[in-house]
Specification:
482 residues, Rossmann fold, Topoisomerase I, Chain A, domain 4, 3-stranded antiparallel sheet, glycoprotein, hydrolase, signal, Peptidase_C13, legumain
């Protein structure tokens, strides 16, 4: 009774103050003030966030740029560093290939997004084990770090998780060549829900096949709302990518962002987060993604508890000092505001698995003729092309050994209907990947496109012995990279 009385007294005071101030100089509308107050009263608790870049290497610049941009949005939204956990390899800002040392851009004409980003988990400490330790709030399970920064959340807290990287059907890749599997992620989320360790959670995932992380397996009754860059069976796309023509910009040789990620973040930058809902943002992102390039598009998906789509962005991302972020200017240091001359960069889309190829082509073309850099880039490009031919050969040979050369090729790419999990026997899929990598080498972002073939092997009921025999015959000598 006492708490209820306090609530209504505070509400009345806000109304009175707004009416009084409105008469003098004008303020934010009463409706916005009240809706913000009621929402904060309803949700309460602390806003937490976990940001994960799942790749390393300069060709994958965009994933860490995405994560840095997301941090700036949350920071401007009022979240504290102690409640934002960043997992990022941190090899881009000062990479020798970065034309702007110490600076990362997520938009060709935007600000530096790297400035001020915490280095919570970097290099080899960005791995699946630490991800699950952070998610579960289990400090004792962390490895390789002295500090203890985890999602130490309580029953009235909100959690925002954003992941950007490479993926395959069934998993999100980590920079140490490990995986976050869809079934393991959902099981971890269920445990956190059962432990009453949060009130509401939002998850955004940027990767190829990202819908497979939730399709048919994320419950709609554990207070989690999730959107993904693509459905369970398609690529997602790099954005703000240079063209490999002679007119390409002289600065960057790789994409600065990803289409889905750029779409939700640029929407968050300019929107009034108190008014805009999660569902409205989903529609905005879906529409922008669909219209960017009809020949190279992904289908943005939504999963889980769709009722949470009525929540405002502010519930999870914070409001920001003005209710919106129209100027897209994160940093107060004059040395980090729009730190380079604007240039025209195309917004052509490039499949995530092909961005590395674009990077190597541009790197070779931009190197002076006859230079060591030119020769090095040519060798790197030749190696990448040879690797792609090799992984194609390996997978098709394994398939032929198990099913016969006369098998219809469509069987390899067969997909299940929407709402079904991509696979029933997750352990089988994990076993195949482990077997392949043991005999043929680590599955690269290009090779990840064959996860569907592996899934169809499992769904066909092929035995573990058959899988091992075929794989060892196809790759008698282990390749370093497949």
């Amino acid at each position: 009774m006492k708490g209820s009385m306090s609530y209504w007294v505070t509400l009345i005071v806000i109304v009175w103050m707004n009416v009084t101030l409105k008469k003098t100089k004008g303020v934010q509308s009463i409706k916005n003030q009240l809706s913000q107050f009621v929402e904060e009263k309803e949700v309460g608790g602390t806003k937490w966030a976990l940001l994960v870049a799942g790749s390393n290497g300069y060709a994958n610049y965009r994933h860490q740029a995405d994560i840095c941009h997301a941090y700036q949005i949350l920071k401007k939204g009022g979240l504290k560093d102690e409640n934002i956990i960043v997992m990022m390899y941190n090899d881009i800002a000062y990479n020798e290939e970065n034309p702007m040392p110490g600076i990362i851009y997520n938009n060709p004409n935007g600000p530096d997004v790297y400035f001020g980003v915490p280095h919570d988990f970097t290099y080899i400490n960005v791995n699946a084990n630490n991800f699950y330790a952070v998610l579960s709030g289990n400090k004792s399970a962390l490895t390789g770090v002295d500090h203890v920064k985890v999602l130490n959340t309580k029953s009235n807290d909100t959690i925002f998780i954003y992941m950007s990287g490479h993926g395959s059907e069934g998993f999100f890749a980590m920079p140490d060549s490990g995986q976050i599997w869809g079934d393991d992620l959902v099981n971890a989320l269920k445990k956190k829900h059962d432990a009453l360790a949060y009130k509401k959670m939002v998850i955004y995932i940027e990767s190829c096949y990202s819908g497979s992380m939730f399709e048919g397996i994320l419950p709609n009754n554990i207070n989690i709302y999730a959107t993904t860059a693509s459905n369970a069976h398609e690529d997602s796309y790099g954005f703000y990518c240079p063209d490999y023509s002679s007119n390409s910009p002289p600065f960057f040789t790789t994409c600065l962002g990803d289409l889905y990620s750029i779409s939700w973040m640029e929407d968050s930058d300019k929107s009034n987060r108190t008014n805009e809902t999660l569902h409205q943002q989903y529609l905005n992102v879906r529409n922008r993604t669909a219209k960017s390039d009809p020949e190279a598009m992904s289908h943005v998906m939504v999963y889980g508890d769709l009722v949470l789509g009525n929540d405002s962005l502010a519930t999870y991302l914070g409001v920001g000092p003005d209710g919106g972020n129209d100027n897209y200017n994160f940093n107060t240091s004059s040395s980090h505001e729009y730190s380079y001359q604007q240039f025209n960069m195309t917004t052509r889309l490039v499949s995530q698995k092909d961005v590395s190829l674009l990077h190597l082509k541009l790197k070779m073309e931009k190197a002076p003729d006859g230079s060591k850099d030119k020769l090095k880039a040519q060798i790197e490009l030749d190696v990448e092309i040879a690797h792609r031919k090799n992984v194609d050969r390996n997978v098709h040979f394994i398939w032929d050994l198990m099913f016969g050369e006369d098998t219809n090729s469509t069987m390899m790419t067969r997909i299940r209907s929407a709402s079904q999990p991509v696979i029933d026997d997750w352990d089988c899929l994990k076993m195949i990947l482990k077997t392949y990598e043991h005999h043929c080498g680590i599955l690269s972002p290009y090779g990840m496109k064959y996860s569907r073939a592996f899934i169809n092997v499992c769904n066909a009921g092929i035995s573990e012995k058959q899988i091992i025999d075929a794989t060892s015959q196809a790759c008698p000598k282990k390749n370093n990279f497949s």
